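Encode chain A's predicted structure.
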Amino acid sequence: MHYIQKYLDKLQIPKTNNKPISNGYKTNIFLYCNYYSFYSQKVLMALYEKNIDFEPLVVDITKGEQYSPWFLEINPRGEIPVLKVNNSIIPDSTRILDYLELYLDHDMPPLIEVSHDSKTLATITKFRELIEALPAGLITVGSFFHPHLCGSPKLPFILPVREVLKSGDLSSSKNLRKLAEENPSAKGVLLYKAEIQDRKHEIIANEEEYIKVLNIVDDVLAQVEIQLKTQSEDGWLCCEKFSIADINLTVLLQRLWELGLEERFWINGKRPNIENYFARVKLRESFKKTIPNLPVHLKMILTSQPPIYVGAAGAVSIGLVFALAYVVKKLIR
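Encoded structure for chain A:
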C-alpha cells in the first residue's frame, strides 16, 4: 500500500485541533466541525460564501470526540457545529447561520437579506424552513437499513462504511447512556439523546415508516422543482442571488446523492431543473471547499484511528482501502 500512502502524504485535510490556538490562521473566529457532518457542511459553505476568515477545529466524530469531556464543556449537547467568536459560543447550525448574517461584518456577501423585495425574502424563508425540517440523520442511517430503496451509494457511504456506521448507530443509545454516567454534568442531555436514538431506530427499522420519510423528501423536492422553473437559467432557488435557501438545498442534494437516492428523486428526466441546479452548484468554490473529495476521503480513511466512544468506525479503513486501492493506483500512475 506504499504507493497510496506516498500519494496521500501530498494531500491536505483539515487537522483535528481541540483548542482554538493558532494553526497559522489569524482570526478570532473558530468553528468546531467535521467536514463529513451534514450540519457542519451548511455552516462551512456559508462561511466560504461570505468569505469569512475562520479556523476550522475538526472534531473527530469517527471516535465520538463530540462526547468527550472537553467538548461537552463547550456544548453539553455533544453536537457539532459550534461557532466560537471571541468569548461567545454559538451552537446549532441554524443559529450559527443567523449569527453570521446578523452579527458579523455587514459588508460581507449576504445570504439571507439578499433582496429588498419582501416576496423574495418570504420565499427564501419558506424554502429554508422546509429543507431544515427534513431529518438528515434519519434519512442517512435509514438508507443503511434499507439499501434496496437506494441506487448506488457514493463515498463516503459505500458498502463497508454503511455496515460499520449501521453497527455503530445500533450501539449508540447504549454508549450514550454509558457516557451519561461518566459525565454527570451532561447526564440529562445525554440520556435525552439516548431516548431520541431509541425512537429513531423504531422508525428506521420499519421500512414502511422510512418510506414515509422519503415521501416527505419527495414532496419538498417537488416544491423545489416548481420553484426552480420560475427562475432564469442562471438563477438560483429563490432569486438571481445565492441565498441561505441554496445552502440548505445544496447540502441536502449532496447527501441524497451520496446515499444513492438521486435516481429516486431527480435524475433521468424526473426533475430536470434540480438536476441542472445540482450540476451548476457543484462548480461553486464554496462547494469545492466544503465537500470532501476523493483524495480527502482516502487520507481520512488511512489516518483515522479506532473509535473511543461510539461504534467501530475506525475499522472502516481496512475495507475502504481494499475497495479503493485500484482506483487510487489508476489516479497516481
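The beta strands are 29-33, 55-58, 82-85, 88-91.
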